[in-house]
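Ticket #4471: complex job returned nothing on first submit. Input attached below:
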Amino acid sequence: MTDTLIEAIRRLDPYPDQMPGPPIELVLRRLQDESADPAPSRAHFRGPGSAAVAAVLSALVTAAVVVLAFMLLGHDRRADRPAGLGARHPPVLACRSEVRLGVLPVWARAGFSAARPRMRYELGTSGRIAMIQWGPLNAPPATDRNNKILWVSRVTTHPGSSLRIVAQRMTGTKRDGAPVGRAVHGGPGPSIINLPAPGCWRLTLRWSGWTDQLDLRYTRPG
Amino acid sequence: MDAQTQFDALYREHAGDVRRYVRRRWDAQSADDVVADVFVVAWRRLADVPDDPLPWLLGVARRILANRRRGDAREHALRERIRTEQFTTALPSGADSRLAGENVWIALGRLSERDREVLLLVAWEGLSTARAARVLGVRANTFAARLYRARRRFAHALGGTDANDAGQRPGSTSHEVLR
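Support reply: We reran it on our side without changes. The output follows.
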């Protein structure tokens, strides 16, 4: 029997569904800031008597941060960086689709008849939008099936405001070719999103004054 | 695997779980700052991150939150939620009415911070005894004993005895404790 007390507490979980992490730029910017002012409060996380080790680690960390900053600043980044980031050259992550098979977040279930619909979906990196797909995404499109995607906004939308997509093919952290634009008229909702070539695509989404971003992998049909 | 790749993988895999842990206990506005702090520590101590990183990351988050609470007059999110929750959680049919959302919130609010954290690591984070013990930096048997005592105090705070207590003693495996 499930522990009824634990289960009673579990029912109160304010965040029962998975959520994406905050933009990694928050961390990288902090690291860059602190590399200029090396006064970290590491004492809370390191045992006593490790001053020598701390000094060596501090030197290594400083070197690593410099290397990381060099690697990150060496890459150009799309102009549509998240608002509020002060860095002139925000870092970039390798393109990687995070589509998962699971129960949709509560806010993305509207229109589904099942109480806990289980779908393939991916959340934007800021958690403002969900991409729900009905099958593999193909480029070029399969002859017998469309690249159907349902977009669900977690945030308030304005009627008539389209969802505009800029898709950039990526090879790891590098842009590969020119970006392409797509639009979903009427805003987040059902759509068919075809892209010109297989590969990992970084989609920047804009709708009703909001932005979000996610990576999708398109494969050759068959 | 180089450090950046390792760090990227760590972030992608666990940042959401850490964020959820923090948001459950801290106000949403500054929760992401705490998450960033956690991963700054993780970057600095990448070589120390164990094969099962989540308990380690949650342990770091827990200590950061503890430090912030000491220097911060704000009530953190859990206390606030305990005060203001709308108690809309539905009970399964036939369930003990003592376990209604309102009663559970109030009972949680009566517990010590330590007891509450033990229960929440199991109930909300869904961690086994062994993994939850690593969050707190204690042995699994110690955690099991704390869980046993926390459950008893929670049951008492709910205004009754815990029928599930029979036969459960510290040292049980997590599976046994949770049955």
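Confidence is low (pLDDT under 50) at residues 84-92, 161-179 of chain B. Closing as resolved unless it happens again.
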